[in-house]
Amino acid sequence: MSEVATNAPAGVAGSAYTRRERGLIIAAAVSGWGMEYFDLVILSLVAGDVGKTFGVSTAAVGAVFTAQLAATAIGGILFGPLADRFGRRRVLTWTIWIFAIGTGLGALAPNFGLFVVCRMIAGIGIGGEWAIGFALLNEAWSPKRRGLAGGMVQAAIWPAYAIGIFVAGAVPNWRWAFAIGALPALAAVAIRLACPESKQWLELQRAKAEGRKAGTVASREPATAGLALLFKKNALKMVVLGTVVVFGAQYSYYVYSSWMPTFLKTGLHLGAGPTQTVLYVSAAISLVSYIAAGALGDRWGRRKALLAFASVQLVAFIAFAVLIATGAATGSVIAMYFVISFGLGYFAVFGTWFGELFATPIRATGSSFCYSVGRGIASFGPGIVGLLAARYGLGGGISTGLFAVALMMITALFLADRSGRAITAAE
């Protein structure tokens, strides 16, 4: 049952934002997350060509996925506390600059080793962006519509993925695709100039400067944000459970998204055109599911919405594994891929769920730690698929995602749900 806050504590609330300010904030969150996803996913769309250029194996390319995802954990640990200390808007632009530059440099890498380093630089920036954008969104948005707004932000990956698919198919070689990934650096400048800072964060800074105690949190904790606060008794349980939930979600996602383009071409023997069509349809299905899950999170609570979509995906993963093992028709396998894509709706819940769990002084720190560390631990998933492919094929490796979905669902049952609570500086 959701633990919905009924009385807003003193301090700046979401109602203090104008419609224009909310529009700028959601635009910043949508563009930041969309650009981040493009830079993260572009490798999966050109993985085969990258391997051929550098003369490395499928397992080695899988290790690149692992390296860049592991680096997101570093970014999450680093930039979350910085956003709580220096502001959401400022640090958000830093993260975009870093992942854009890292991706652009990857286009120029003369050898495989330097290419891996560039992907890790991009991963560090990517790891920080997600939680900071959602912290800003959660603080500005109406509690009754916060989930829907989060679903809209998550849905930004559809145009990002569609653009990635188009770019990967249109450019003369993979290096051009990574060069295009450097363009988000321009957007960072626009975000810094146009997007307002969080009013709750500004009020908290004023309270600290004046030596005031900003509500119950400040009366219990020192007036500094940092990782140490996450390991206090009142936050530690949320951090551990949240990280495990994200690990399950990210592992299940990365094992199939990282290798599905290659699997469609080499495992199901689809041509370039049919492969692009399948990926476009999958992305469109996910867009619908993200918005639906976000809206249902406002009505049912974050936990119930996550479990509903995860249940769909778990059944689809099991069916996918059976179909692969029995050599079923290509159409049936693709159909299950589409159902798995629909089940991804639960990703739309994380941003608002974690933002509501943590107080303003540690909102970006807590959200970023759970999401990025969970994602970083899951980073070995694509590498495992690459290793399993030699014996069981890519389809067999991808099927391991079903175990991670089950883990996510079990852990989510124990994570608090504070859906729709008011978010202020004084909590």
Present the secondary structure layout.
Elements (H helix, E strand, L loop, with lengths): L18 H27 L1 H8 L3 H29 L1 H19 L5 H29 L5 H9 L2 H14 L3 H7 L3 H11 L4 H11 L5 H6 L12 H25 L2 H8 L4 H29 L1 H24 L4 H14 L3 H11 L5 H15 L2 H19 L2 H12 L15
Helix pairs in contact: 1-4, 1-5, 1-6, 1-7, 1-9, 3-4, 3-5, 3-18, 3-19, 4-5, 4-8, 4-9, 5-17, 5-18, 6-14, 6-17, 7-14, 12-17, 12-18, 12-19, 12-20, 13-19, 14-15, 14-16, 15-16, 15-17, 15-20, 17-18
Walk me through what this model shows:
One of its GO terms (cellular component) is plasma membrane. This is MFS transporter. It is a multi-pass membrane protein. One of its GO terms (molecular function) is carboxylic acid transmembrane transporter activity. Keywords: Membrane, Transmembrane, Transmembrane helix. The protein has 427 residues and is mainly α. The chain has a single domain, classed as Growth Hormone, Chain: A (Up-down Bundle). The protein contains 20 helices and no strands. The chain has helices spanning 19-45, 47-54, 58-86, 88-106, 112-140, 146-154, 157-170, 174-180, 184-194, 199-209, 215-220, 233-257, 260-267, 272-300, 302-325, 330-343, 347-357, 363-377, 380-398, 401-412. The longest helix has 29 residues, at 58-86. The two termini are 21 Å apart. 58% of the residues are buried.
Corresponding CATH superfamily: MFS general substrate transporter like domains
Classify the secondary structure makeup into a structural class: mainly alpha
CATH topology: Growth Hormone, Chain: A
Strand content: under 5%
